[in-house]
Amino acid sequence: MKVSSNPLNRSKGDFLLEEKMSDVSLGTSGWSYKEWEGVLYPKGEKRKLSYYARYFKTVEIDSTYYAYPAKAMVQGFAGATPDGFVFSAKLPKLITHEKRLDVGKGVEQDLARFLHVMRPLEDAGKLGPLLIQLPPSFSYERDLAALQGFLKVIPSDVRFAIEFRHLSWLRQDTWDLLREHNVANTIVDEPLLPPDLVVTADFSYIRWHGQGARSWYNYRYTDKELKAWVPRVKEVAAKTKKVYGYHNNHPFGHAVESALKESEFLGIAGEEQRSLQARVTRAIDRRIESRSGSVQGLLDLGADR
């Protein structure tokens, strides 16, 4: 749907769509990548989160998957970002992968510990959804009871999204279970599962990992691929109060580029974001040209031997 730029020609539907798009927040999964220096960050930038927050309103904390953060670190996240900034975060792999959501193994206590650590963000009004990212081996047939038990112990005042990586979960029974607990089905662009636009909560959660059979993370989206997501995001936005979207193709700064381009194609990018996107794209292009030149040089050297 194209929204008219002439106020005299705009319908009530145009204004409603524009209002809904203001509830779409896009960012990246993680921010503290050294390789983003020279792409997003100036060389040697120490305050990466503060710099990132100049251009994005949200970020997904990736590091919480690997280990519980120190509470002082979380307090630092809150202090380094402006009012209105939102952090989503992955649940620790201790809960999702090692104990596989099994309440009998103490995951309710593990979750309480994690929520306590994240409390500074909640107190600052900056805590977004928590992502339950499941392993590919977590299947409906084997693990349904574990998921049901875990959903019964999650607090109702915290938003949760769940990312399945096994096809067996794509069924009506799953969606009914998630709706019962207002847990968002994570809509994905990835090699394993199709981009199923099923909404199961009053907010939506989208993750872009890359396309193709072996293109996890290290993937540069084309404009055509990103534009194909515009009607999808708009469809989801029309069904929910809020949309959170994160680009996880972080190598070489590709996530920064695709998040900025997606924002522009959706019509929600500001002038600063558009200017940054052009700069980021030029920086990535130069790196690709440099790498190509280095490879060609090695091939030429080998041909001379």
General description of the model:
- This protein is α/β, with parallel strands linked by helices.
- It has helices spanning 12-21, 48-52, 71-79, 93-98, 107-117, 119-123, 140-153, 172-180, 223-227, 230-239, 254-266, 271-304, and strands spanning 24-28, 58-61, 86-90, 127-133, 160-163, 184-189, 203-208, 242-247.
- It has one domain: TIM Barrel, CATH 3.20.20.
- The protein has an eight-stranded parallel β-sheet.
- The longest helix has 34 residues, at 271-304.
- The N and C termini lie far apart (59 Å).
Structure described in brief:
43% of the residues lie in helices and 14% in strands. With 305 residues, it is an alpha/beta fold.
Secondary structure: number of strands: 8
Q: What percentage of amino acids are in beta strands?
A: 5-15%
- Alpha-beta content class: alpha/beta
Largest sheet: 8 strands, parallel
Order of helices and strands: HEHEHEHHHEHEHEEHHEHH
Shape type: globular
Reading off the top of the CATH hierarchy, the class is best stated as: Alpha Beta
CATH superfamily: Protein of unknown function UPF0759
The pLDDT mean sits at 91
- Cα gyration radius (Å): 20 Å
Please give the CATH architecture.
Answer: Alpha-Beta Barrel
Helix content: 40-55%
Number of helices: 12
Total separate domains: 1
Poorly predicted regions are: 1-5, 295-305
For this structure, the CATH topology is TIM Barrel
